[in-house]
Structures are given as structure tokens and as C-alpha cells.
Amino acid sequence: MKKYIIAPSVLSANFWDLKTELTQLKELKVEWIHYDVMDFDFVPNLTFGPKILKDIISNIDLKIDIHFMIKNKQPKLIDFLMPFIECKPAMMTMHFEALNDLEIKEFVKICKDNKIKASLAINPDKTVEEIKDYLSILDNVLVMSVFPGFGGQKFESNALTNISCLKKIINEKKLSLTIEVDGGINSQTAELVKKAGVDMIVAGSYLFGQKDIQERLEILKKDDN
Question: How does it assemble (predicted)?
């Protein structure tokens, strides 16, 4: 039976009661959380910086999956990333649309040097073909099933094609690469992405604030394939 990684998205949490919600996730055996960083430039929203993340990791033991939806304004990418690296995330993701070729390779090297999993994200209107040259150096690909910027959006079915295509390439080339999906996840879409070949599922409003969160987590984890 396949074990899926579930990473609840902090974007959908109640920040008035964040400690309680994260503690509940920990008690329910959740190991990862997804942390969205938006800059009101690459996407039309502004979210969290390293300070909130530092407070989280200082008080609760969870693996951190950082998803950067930003345009780097620093002369050196490492200058932007370092405050987040100091929080010791397990994985960091940047959008390949936001970086040029040299920056992508620099990002991957920074991750490797700091023992962090390196991940690239692709939007629903992009194809795996556009990032195929980087797959051999990545640890993960984040397939967006919504356009980044806001939680609670409707699932974009193009993501299933990208997941299936990635899975085929991984199997053919025997790559050590995981597939993550983010956006519009519920009980129905979770089944679709699992059948397509995903390994890691990000879920926000489907989990946070729900009275039956334990049952919902079990639905996401369940392997019916």
C-alpha cells in the first residue's frame, strides 16, 4: 500500500488560533505543513515571511515545505533565501516561470548545499516538457492544480495530464523524484491525483477549520489504487 504525504497548507489556517490548529495536526500524526510565501508581484497576494515560520518551528516539530511564489529582487538569490534556510525546511519550491536557467541551477545548488529538497513548480497552463531538462537534478516537482495566489480555488484538470506525464518519465528514466500537487484538493480530486501518480498532496480549506478533519486526513491518505 502506497503511503501518501499530506501537507496541510497554512494559508488556510486560522491565524488567531494557529497554535491550536498546528497542535491538532501534530496529534493527528501529520508530519508536514505547506508554507506559502507570496510577494504581491509574481502573484496578486501577500503572505508570510521567515518570522512567522521561525515562530512555528520554534514551538512545534513539523517538516516544512516552503512554496515560494515570488520574483527575486536580491542581486543574489541566496540573500533572499537565507532567512528561510535558517528555519531548516525539509523542502523548498520555486516556480520555474519566475527564474531563468542560471537561477534555477543556482537554486538547486543552494538547496543541495543546505541538505534541503529542491523542487520546481509548474502552473496548470504549463507542461512537463518545459521543465524536462531539470528533472534529473530535482527532488520534487510541484504540479499546481490551481493558478497560484489564493486558496479555495477550483481544481484545474490540466494538472492530471502533468502528473501522469511526470510519472511516466520518472518510471522510464528511473528518476528519484517525487510529485506533489497543490490546489483544489477535496475527496473527489484527491482520488484523481492519486490515480495519476502523485506522492504528496497539499490541502488547505479541505482540512483547516473542519470538524471532521481526522476523517478528511484519512480520506487523503487512503490508497484505493
Answer: Homodimer.
C-alpha separations of 95 from 11, 13, 148, 174 in Å: 18, 23, 10, 24
Instruction: Give percent of the chain above pLDDT 90.
Output: 82
- Select which of 36, 39, 65, 139 is catalytic: 36
User: Which residue ranges form the domains of the chain, and what is each CATH number?
Assistant: 5-221 (3.20.20.70)
Residue 9 DSSP label: B
| Neighbouring residues of 7: CB distance < 8 A, sequence distance ≥ 6 | 32, 33, 34, 65, 180, 200, 201, 202, 203
Going by the DSSP 8-state scheme, the letter that residue 79 receives in this structure is H
Write down the catalytic residue from 39, 65, 139, 182. Answer: 182
N- to C-terminal Cα distance for the chain?
9
51-107 pLDDT tens trace: 999 999 999 999 999 999 888 888 889 999 999 999 999 999 999 989 999 999 999
Is 65 considered catalytic here?
A: no
Q: CB count, 10 Å around CB of 130?
A: 12
